Amino acid sequence: MNREILFRGKRSDTGEWIEGYFGQSVDSFIIQDHGLVAGCFEMFKVIPETVGQYTGMKDKNGRRIFEGDIILPHGYKPEACPVFYEDFCFRIDSNICVLCVADEDDIEVIGNIYDKPDLLEVSDNG
Known about the structure:
The chain is mainly beta. The chain is built from 1 helix and 12 strands; from the N terminus they run E-E-E-E-E-E-E-E-E-E-E-E-H.
């Protein structure tokens, strides 16, 4: 299976999300936009804590699922779950690999841990 290698991070200058290829310089983390502008790739400094890799999966709305996203795995778990990378697998908890959730049509991205961390607090207290 071929999986697109792609990263996402928040730009340090504007706070906007950018998707592309990941790089690191001596003093910063960089995402290189995967689109060409005037024949050149643009590079943006990003906030290191926000960098997450694309899982290779999309949710039921066609939205890419990244590490750091909060998903609702409808029909599998009743609560919101963060996506994280551990032991060579993207997971939604210590025992469940995201790829094990059989049907992408049952997964929905509802936010991410950086912009909407309260989605997990509600889930944990509910």
